[in-house]
């Protein structure tokens, strides 16, 4: 999941990251409804639909290669599997937060290393720095994910991730000089509105 996310950053523009997140939201919500018997309100469904719509109405001039779609599909599957399985382990197996952090990262070290050196071009001048930085970020991601899934549903966690991608898209427009127009800005505002609607629906159900 970490490696594929990095590949998406290289291949796709920011809005395609939101497309992959929106796809994972749908699958996570469906799995929670079928497996965990979590009720889904109409307002939640409406907010998810708005998030999906916001992901697909960006700049039509954006180009993406076939490989980008392949990495996006793999990212959806891997992200959904990680979130749902982690929530199942935390809630049903009564695992500690430390265990939920330690074992996935322990297994990820050799796998990410193999994939990285197989698909990336590295030099000795930058490998150590990026390993150190990514290790800290991966630890913080795993730690906060475990804490969030202890108190929130997987669908809520996915919606938070989608809103994070919206903030990243805004950052791309401001700091990375990505192309922008009225349609792209409208899609980001629509995604922000969908997050607000989802928060309202969750507060009504009082299950946050």
What would you note in describing this structure?
- Homooligomer.
- One of its GO terms (cellular component) is Golgi membrane.
- It comes from Nosema bombycis (strain CQ1 / CVCC 102059).
- The protein is mainly alpha-helical.
- It has one domain (1-119, 130-206).
- The protein has eight helices and no strands.
- It has helices at 2-11, 14-35, 42-56, 66-92, 97-119, 124-151, 154-175, 182-205.
- The longest helix has 28 residues, at 124-151.
- The protein is globular, with a radius of gyration of 18 Å.
- The model has no long low-confidence stretch (mean pLDDT 67).
Topology, please?
Blueprint: H1 2-11, H2 14-35, H3 42-56, H4 66-92, H5 97-119, H6 124-151, H7 154-175, H8 182-205
Helix pairs in contact: 1-4, 2-3, 2-4, 2-7, 3-8, 4-6, 5-6, 7-8
């Amino acid at each position: 999941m970490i490696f594929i996310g990095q590949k998406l950053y290289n291949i796709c523009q920011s809005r395609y990251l939101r497309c992959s997140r929106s796809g994972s939201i749908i699958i996570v919500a469906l799995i929670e409804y079928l497996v965990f018997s979590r009720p889904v309100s109409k307002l939640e469904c409406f907010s998810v639909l708005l998030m999906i719509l916001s992901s697909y109405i960006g700049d039509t001039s954006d180009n993406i290669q076939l490989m980008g779609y392949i990495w996006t599909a793999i990212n959806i599957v891997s992200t959904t599997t990680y979130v749902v399985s982690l929530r199942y382990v935390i809630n049903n197996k009564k695992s500690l937060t430390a265990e939920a952090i330690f074992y996935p990262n322990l297994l990820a070290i050799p796998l990410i290393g193999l994939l990285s050196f197989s698909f990336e071009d590295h030099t000795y001048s930058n490998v150590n720095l990026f390993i150190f930085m990514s290790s800290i970020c991966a630890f913080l991601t795993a730690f906060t994910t475990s804490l969030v899934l202890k108190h929130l549903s997987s669908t809520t966690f996915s919606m938070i991730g989608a809103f994070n991608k919206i903030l990243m898209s805004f950052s791309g427009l401001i700091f990375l000089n990505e192309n922008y127009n009225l349609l792209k800005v409208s899609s980001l505002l629509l995604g922000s509105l969908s997050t607000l609607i989802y928060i309202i629906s969750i507060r009504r159900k009082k299950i946050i």
